[in-house]
Amino acid sequence: MPLAAFPKCYLPALCTTKTMSLEEWIKASAYLDIDGLEFYWQFTPVTTEGRRQARRLVESQGRLIPMMCYSPDFTKPDRTERIAEVQAQRDVLRACGELGVRYCRVLSGQRRPGLNRAETVRWVAECIHLLLPDAASSGVTLILENHYKDPFWQYPEFAQRSEIFLELLSEIGTHPFFGVNYDPSNTLIIGEDPIVLLEAVKDKVVTMHASDRFLKGGSLEDLKKLDLDGIEGYSSILQHGVIGEGLNNYDRIFSILKSVGFSGWVSIEDGAEPEAGMERLARSAKFLRRKMREHNVG
Known about the structure:
By secondary structure, this protein is an alpha/beta fold. It contains eleven helices and eleven strands. The protein has a nine-stranded parallel beta sheet with strand order 2-1-11-8-7-6-5-4-3. Strands 9-10 form a two-stranded antiparallel sheet. Helix content is 43%, strand content 14%. The protein has a single domain (3-294), classed as TIM Barrel (Alpha-Beta Barrel), CATH 3.20.20.
């Protein structure tokens, strides 16, 4: 099971303030015990040459760029706007080829007020079906994540709750270039059990975001009571943590993944405390390497 890292704690610096360059992040990550770097579309170079340079720099470290974190928004009521989102992801798939990316994230979109659930599931499934031929021709697998919220979105994920996520998976069906990117922490945000979801999707999981959370000033029952519609940030009572030091049971997670022969990429996601970001990523990588060996996965 190869291990990658995603610079979630550095996204503001990489994407908004521009106080960190992509080259600086790649070079800073060189000492981490990982096999690859997951890219985020907003810090990916816009030109072909820029992407090739980034790929050469990563590969000069003996690493790959296995995953692209992208956030399409397929819940827009206007179909013309949804098709524009499809076209935008087609452009991303082409860029993935230049970077050597094998897995590209796809989402449902924002949970806008007033959406009809059944109709919106059909909208999203149609958009993903339109993308599958492009994924196949590019050799890139689309990975649907049980997601919470892109940092640049106003509303949380439409398919955030497990029942809607599973309904959407059923509507999309099976395809050789489609699978699940499982993130155990995103179920915790809404007070759901990450193990229950994993058992339901284990045969479809092809990649995983390894993340962890800890409670700060509340309980899981408090999370269940929260109405997340319209919230523009994460719940203050559930914070990102170093992998292995929070609420997720990684022994159980890796045991389940081992039972279905999972051998895909695991990408570290730690989204807090950028001033200690590299030290935290190193601790997370150390923990995950140990658990991967213990469970003989990969």
